[in-house]
Amino acid sequence: MTEKLGVLGKASQASGVERVVNAPLPTVYGDFQAVGYMDHDRGDEQVALVYGEIAEDDVLTRLHSECLTGDAFGSQHCECGDQLDSALRAIVAEGSGILVYLRGHEGRGIGLLAKLRAMQLQAEGLDTVEANLAQGLPVDSRDYGVAAEILHDLGVRSVRLMSNNPRKREALLRHGIKIAEDVPLLIPPCENNITYLRTKRERLDHVLPHLDAVAHWS
Hints:
Radius of gyration: 18 Å
Number of helices: 8
Order of helices and strands: EEEEEEHHEHHHHEHEH
Strand content: 25-35%
Oligomer: single chain
Structural class: alpha/beta
């Protein structure tokens, strides 16, 4: 359903998240089902990659924010591509699980071009928080409500959440998804992303204890 009829017979815009398609998606990791959704409130097309038989509780789950530079181009500016790879491998090793790939989250919600400008500002000495603010943009405008709606649609009540970001946990809890376990997704840092990762830990409260082992990088 893409539209609804109002009381006067005129078409009214649909709202909420609608499941549109379910297609098999063989990947280098394993054979997933790609479940496509339309977020009518924001106009974004979303997808959940589902592996194996999904139970209602304790489902190994990753909410992955779209990152073109990291996910597609292998950027070392962030750890996003490696997190995506690790999460998909973990789900297949588990035998079942869900990865919700969240479109519209590029650059923590500021968009691709603004993210590239932020990267330019970081090369000039600002950290990732300062670079967003210097553009008059929010530090993090991502909304995880759509992810919770997708999980509800898939029949999930509780998850084992692969994340280092406490805001994802808090958002799912607010939207009625229980957290059975917090599963760290720690990627070894490199010299190109250590400053970015430290900023995530120190200014955005991400849980990244493994960074202590690389104190020699300034």
